Amino acid sequence: MGGASNIIARHFKALLEKYMSYSRGMINHLKSCIYGWNTSAQVLHNIASTFGVPCKLDWGNFTYLVMLVSAVPLKAEVWDTIIDKMKRKVQ
């Protein structure tokens, strides 16, 4: 059985905190957000509260590590922009 739940979020948070204690990493709460789909608003709010970050109930796309993540397939023009941006960074 899977799916989003506050129980799973608490277990994941405990693992993440253990990893961060070993790696000395930190969560940037200013850049973090919980996104979800096929999940109730209440569950998403509970999970976001567990992590101390906001949640987005309605989203079309967002960026993750400079890459655009979208709920719908991206058009070629969008990929051209991303590829050009990555080429400039590599140079």
Average pLDDT taken over every residue: 86
**How many structurally independent domains?**
2
Number of strands: 4
The outline comes out as: flat
Strand content: 5-15%
- Output the radius of gyration: 16 Å
Span between termini: 46 Å
How does the helix and strand content classify structurally?
Answer: alpha+beta
Strand order of the largest sheet: 1-2
Largest sheet: 2 strands, parallel
- What pattern of helices and strands is seen along the backbone? HEHEEEH
Give the helix level as a range of percent: 40-55%
Total helices: the number is 3
Q: Could you characterize the architecture of this molecule?
A:
- The protein is α+β, with helices and mostly antiparallel strands and 91 residues long.
- The protein has 2 domains: 1-59, no CATH class; 61-91, no CATH class.
- 48% of the residues lie in helices and 13% in strands.
- It is built from 3 helices and 4 strands; from the N terminus they run αβαβββα.
- The chain has helices at residues 6-23, 41-51, 76-90, and strands at residues 34-35, 55-56, 61-64, 67-70.
- A two-stranded parallel sheet has the order 1-2. Strands 3-4 form a two-stranded antiparallel sheet.
- Helix 1 runs parallel beside helix 2 (41-51).
- The longest helix has 18 residues, at 6-23.
- It is flat, with a radius of gyration of 16 Å.
- The model has no long low-confidence stretch (mean pLDDT 86).
